[in-house]
Amino acid sequence: MEAPDLLPLVAGRPLILAPFDLAEALSELLDLPLAGEEAAGEVTSTGTVREVLPAVRSLLPGAPATYVEHDKLLVDGVPAAWRFFGGTVHAEGVEGLARGRAWASGQWGDRLAVAALLRDPEAVPLLLAEADLDSWTASTN
Q1: For the chain, which has fewer Cβ within 10 Å, the N-terminal or C-terminal residue?
Q2: Can you say whether the dihedral through the CA atoms of 14, 105, 92, 40 is positive or negative?
Q3: Treating both helix axes as pointing N-terminal to C-terminal, what angle do 111-119 and 124-140 enclose, rounded to 10 degrees?
Q4: Are residues 21 and 57 in the same domain?
Q5: Are 123 and 53 in contact (CB under 8 A)?
Q6: CA-to-CA distance for 92 and 82, rounded, in angstroms?
Q7: Rounded to an integer, what distance in angstroms lies between the CA atom of residue 116 and that of residue 98?
Q8: Torsion angle defined by CA atoms of residues 6, 10, 16 and 21, in that order, rounded to the nearest 10 degrees
Q9: How many angstroms separate the CA atoms of 78 and 8, rounded?
Q10: What is the C-alpha to C-alpha distance for residues 25 and 18, in angstroms, rounded to an integer?
Q11: Helices 111-119 & 93-105, crossing angle to 10 degrees?
């Protein structure tokens, strides 16, 4: 799977899940298509462009400063929580926005912290401190 936002689009098909960094090589070796080759991944619903809260931007500075909020996000006509496409995060709800921003910034592992931050913006200092501890423990192990 080259992008987790494509999972809802291929959910009814047989899948071989591989580590992200090996998906393309495994696809070529087994002569199987990647999810992005099977689904267009086109956002087919409309939404409203919104600014991302500064607190959220501080946690994921590499993600876009805006996103498109959808009441009901449809990708290829299929309900989805989020989609990062063409440099834009499309999201439905807190969980979708957290996942879309985390993927867009290359910090997928921070998606749960971002969701917690979106639910409680007052928790920014604690979440930033915990994020620093995550990077510190990773570098010392």
Answers
A1: C
A2: negative
A3: 170
A4: no
A5: no
A6: 6
A7: 9
A8: -10
A9: 7
A10: 10
A11: 140
> Alpha-carbon distance 34 to 40, whole Å?
11
Phi/psi at 88 (nearest 5 deg)?
-120, 135
Is there a single domain that holds both residue 9 and residue 53?
Answer: no
Residues 10, 67, single domain; the answer is: no
Same domain, 32 and 56: no
**Confidence category of residue 126, pLDDT binned at 50, 70, 90:** confident
| Cα–Cα distance for residue pair 84/103, rounded to 1 Å | 8
Residue 19 lies in a domain: yes
Does residue 32 surpass a pLDDT of 80? Answer: no
